[in-house]
Design a protein that fits this description.
Length: about 375
């Protein structure tokens, strides 16, 4: 019976996950989902799906269809209409099911829905960490590494050889000479490490709605890339006319004014990578979000030079997302399209929240 209940519950969980996948576009664009993320879990409310349960009637009320009343009589207490009034009760109500998914499960659902290819890391063999690998058995060692199976075999062999083994009362008592311990040695193990540098324009033309779009999209980008690497670091840069590095909270909440000089962010990002993340060892991702406004005076040309000479050669992927704003000119995207073409450069226009899904596929659809 227990196995049958568990099977039915797993089946119900599959139904719930199917509902999540069906409504994934809506979940992707909900800011509340990200705010409810725990250390390892994401809780997704699934509307109109309730846990199945049995309802029992009172024994003294008769069977189905029995009792007083005519066709069309409203069903209520003793046949009286139910108007929703009355005193507060103490019985539990009905609750909508909330499902907790791990980050890995969430990434798999998103990958299936968007048909994203698996990321093929570059430089995966460059970074190593020491790993203990068990290689044999020895006679001395700490008790935490004692091998019960090998110790038992040694004790049994000794008792059989000495004639002290009694098959009618098979008691095996190891002595010190029987003890065997696992031995190990440290071996380097290759890992695939990655770093994501998020850059965002926080000038006066970037409003709260634009920042919320950036927050949601960067969360899902982070979720997908994190599923492919053992180690992932994230760095956050904001810029108006000047760029600076900030923490995650500041990145998503800062509202500043003033002009925009995009080259300041590209220069800072290039310096960070050169100083701390050599591309021979790290998989480097850049994502820049802006409304497309940029200061004149040749700053576009400075951006092209930085991209061509320093950022694109070091990057697995450089993604530029242009978030539409009524105050932004949107010219930087056109400038990039006209002056730069590279396999690892992806440009995406994000007109509104409904475009987040398409933009994520733009960025991650190449499997870089």
């Amino acid at each position: 019976m227990i196995k049958r209940i568990e099977r039915d519950r797993r089946r119900f969980e599959d139904i719930v996950r199917g509902k999540i996948k069906q409504d994934l576009k809506r979940h992707l664009t909900r800011g509340e989902l990200i705010g409810r993320r725990g250390e390892e879990l994401v809780s997704i409310p699934v509307p109109q799906i309730e846990l199945p349960r049995f309802r029992y009637g009172r024994r003294d009320t008769g069977g189905v269809g029995q009792g007083p009343g005519d066709v069309g009589t409203p069903i209520g207490s003793d046949g009286d209409p139910v108007d929703g009034s009355g005193a507060a009760g103490d019985a539990p109500g009905h609750h909508i099911r909330e499902v907790e998914l791990t980050i890995q499960e969430l990434a798999e659902l998103m990958g299936e829905e968007l048909e994203l290819p698996r990321i093929q890391p570059k430089g995966a063999e460059s970074l190593t960490v020491p790993k203990n690998r068990f290689t044999g058995i020895k006679r001395a060692g700490p008790e935490s590494l004692r091998s019960f199976k090998r110790t038992y075999k040694e004790a049994l062999k000794r008792q059989l050889a000495s004639g002290s083994y009694n098959p009618r009362r098979p008691v095996i008592v190891p002595v010190r000479e029987d003890m065997r311990y696992r031995s190990f040695r440290e071996e380097p193990e290759a890992i695939a490490n990655a770093v994501i540098l998020y850059m965002m324009d926080v000038s006066g033309s970037m409003g709260n709605e634009q920042k919320e779009i950036v927050r949601i999209e960067s969360f899902w980008i982070d979720t997908w890339i994190r599923a492919h690497y053992d180690g992932l670091e994230t760095r956050y840069l904001i810029h108006d006319a000047a760029a600076r590095e900030v923490d995650r909270e500041t990145f998503y909440t800062t509202r500043e004014s003033g002009g925009t000089r995009i080259s300041s962010a590209y220069q800072l990002a290039a310096d960070i990578v050169q100083r701390e993340y050599p591309p021979q060892a790290w998989n480097v991702y850049f994502f820049h979000f802006s409304d497309g406004d940029n200061w004149g005076g040749g700053d576009d040309e400075k951006c092209f030079t930085l991209l061509h000479e320093r950022l694109l050669p070091d990057a697995n992927l450089f993604g530029y997302g242009q978030v539409e704003s009524r105050y932004g000119s949107g010219q930087f995207l056109h400038a990039l399209e006209s002056h730069l073409q590279a396999e690892n450069l992806v440009l995406s226009r994000i007109e509104e929240r409904d475009a987040i899904l398409r933009s994520i596929k733009d960025f991650l659809g190449k499997g870089k």
